[in-house]
Specification:
Length: 348
């Protein structure tokens, strides 16, 4: 089979498939013992991201261990942010810590738009190694979206209420625009370079866009994402784009105006509700905690999602957010097999 006819790429384009393809957000992560061992060897998570040989090895673990239909590049949305000139550390139990946090115009002025070929060559090298080894399944590249990245930069890390980010957004529109413009350029060049290095499709993570009201999202975040998507479609018209965020039910109609191919849904967004609002292919949306339920319950939930997904233009199965570190890998494998089996059955 030619790679361009792989079910994930077909589903993204809205073509019929024999079964529903599946991958899992954070599929190369801490729930896997092999991942934990390799991370130990690398010393830290960021070191692992910077080592093409190990990052490629980690990327391919879930293909073997749980049988997913695609690999996702092992990296993090904060990797390019580090190359803009902000220190990024992952502190155990606290998540990412960014220093210094951006406060004023001068802080933004000194931020650089990284040249991927120079500054992020290790990511592109990772992609090339993966593509040499993975011939029968697509590789997903990814980036954060400007709003989600700006929130980390302005908050200095994860946040509950986004006070620093929203304050800048409302009180200092020029500072906001200049930061968001730099991030848009960064993301455009970064994703474009990933596609040129071999990524078969890309996902834009606007994980935290749901904290904005529809009006604020349309004014302060959507235009920048739109600019990125339009430029990517111009440069790489054949490469499907997935757009994902959590708690973003109220933004579905707005995001349907993006020229993306697939919209990722979290587990609280009901598929019929989404299909009344969007005409793109969908991705999702099992609750990550459902993998702690017994197999019969998982099967029931999967069947419901698959049935509803058949009404979409195309459906890529996934969890509604990242797989949790406490998950039993056997359950992840069971999920993949169940999606394949039931989705074939339903097409009977
Ligand atoms: O999906 C994959 O397997 C690909 C790799 C990937 C990671 N992060 C690896 C990772 C991807 C696509 C991401 C995206 C990412 N990173 C997002 C968007 C997706 C989402 O979750 O909404 C965000 C917001 C981040 C920022 C980030 N990275 C946080 C908040 C954390 C800490 C969270 C935690 O669980 O401790 C990370 C760390 C991180 N990124 C890990 C992995 C495997 C855990 C690192 C480790 O301790 O080994």
């Amino acid at each position: 089979m030619e790679l361009k006819n792989h079910p994930i790429l077909k589903a993204a384009r809205g073509e019929e498939t024999d079964y529903t393809p599946v991958w899992i957000m954070r599929q190369a992560g801490r729930y896997s013992e092999r991942y934990r061992k390799i991370r130990e060897k690398a010393g830290s998570f960021m070191n692992l991201c910077r080592n093409p040989e190990l990052a490629a090895e980690v990327t391919l673990i879930p293909i073997e261990e749980i049988g997913v239909d695609a690999a996702i590049l092992f990296s993090d949305i904060l990797v390019p942010v580090e190359k803009m000139g902000i220190k990024v550390e992952f502190v155990e139990g606290k998540g990412p810590v960014l220093t210094p946090p951006v406060r004023n115009f001068r802080d933004v002025e000194v931020l650089k738009v990284p040249d991927p070929k120079e500054d992020l060559s290790y990511v592109l090298e990772t992609i090339r190694i993966i593509k040499e080894r993975l011939v029968d399944r697509p590789l997903i590249g990814f980036s954060g979206a400007p709003f989600t990245l700006a929130s980390y930069i302005l908050e200095g890390g994860s946040s509950k209420n986004y006070i620093a980010a929203k304050s800048v957004m409302w009180n200092d529109k020029e500072l906001w625009d200049s930061l968001m413009t730099k991030l848009s350029e960064t993301v455009t060049e970064y994703l474009s370079a990933q596609i040129e290095a071999g990524a078969d499709l890309v996902q834009i993570f606007d994980s935290w866009m749901g904290v904005l009201s529809r009006e604020d999202y349309e004014k302060y975040a959507f235009p920048y994402t739109k600019r990125i998507v339009n430029e990517l479609k111009k440069r790489h018209p054949e490469t499907p784009i997935i757009h994902f965020g959590v708690n973003a039910q109220h933004l579905l109609e707005v995001n349907n105006r993006l020229r993306v191919d697939v919209i990722g849904l979290d587990w609280k967004t009901e598929i019929p509700f989404a299909l009344e609002r969007i005409d793109k292919s969908i991705q999702g949306n099992l609750d990550p905690v459902a993998l702690f339920a017994d197999e019969r319950t998982i099967e029931e939930k999967v069947r419901k999602i698959l049935k509803e997904g058949l009404k979409a233009r195309g459906h890529i199965f996934n969890l509604g957010h990242g797989i949790l570190p406490q998950t039993d890998p056997k359950k992840a494998r069971f999920l993949v097999e169940t999606v394949h089996r039931i989705s074939r059955e339903l097409r009977g």
